[in-house]
Amino acid sequence: MRKILVLIIEDDPACRELLTAAMLDVGRVVHAAKTLAEGYKELEAARPDLIVLDRGLPDGDGVKFCLTLRKDARYRTIPILMLTGKGEVEDRVLGLRFGADDYLAKPFDMEEFMARADGLVRRGSPELAGCGDRLECGALAMDLKARQAQAGGENVELSRMEYELLRVLLERANIPVTRDFLLEAVWKASPDSSGHKVVDMTVMNLRKKLGPLGEMIAAVRGLGYKLSAPGQ
Asked: Of 31, 89, 134, 159, which is the most buried if we count CB atoms within 10 A?
């Protein structure tokens, strides 16, 4: 099995070295760049399984970089974890809406960073991350091999779209997911506000079928949804 390749685009030397060391410690292959231009060159040389991207770079804004990648079929599905010195809600929402899959404000806890990075790799390349045949969050679980969802240990019959929606939410447990991302990941549809009603309706139906555990899927105002265990 090949190793996971991570591209880190960060202009701060100390932060770049810290992130690189953390990834190397868990067996990742790391390519590092300090500008967007260098990042593009690394992308052309080898397709990474994850991009860790600083928002403020000497030659441009990471948000625009995200948007550019999402418009390019070669890089559209690569998970992106954005790092920034800005922690306001509007900044996080902006980054996620323009293509970032997750967002961390500096300074951040390294364990949280690694957990979020691993979650994105599982979503993008589950066979590499070693997530196996089972996903779990609290009392919700999914047997990927049998294509069976369980709530509180009981099997739940789901439609194909409900199953795929729950799978994506479980893969990104505790991480806010935009409606546009769900449209692409579940329905393979281009981001379109008209499709948000389909997402909302499917979430509503899924919640009903999960019974009391449906409350684990919470709406994130102005963004989308997040699945998390009670108390998290």
From this structure: 31
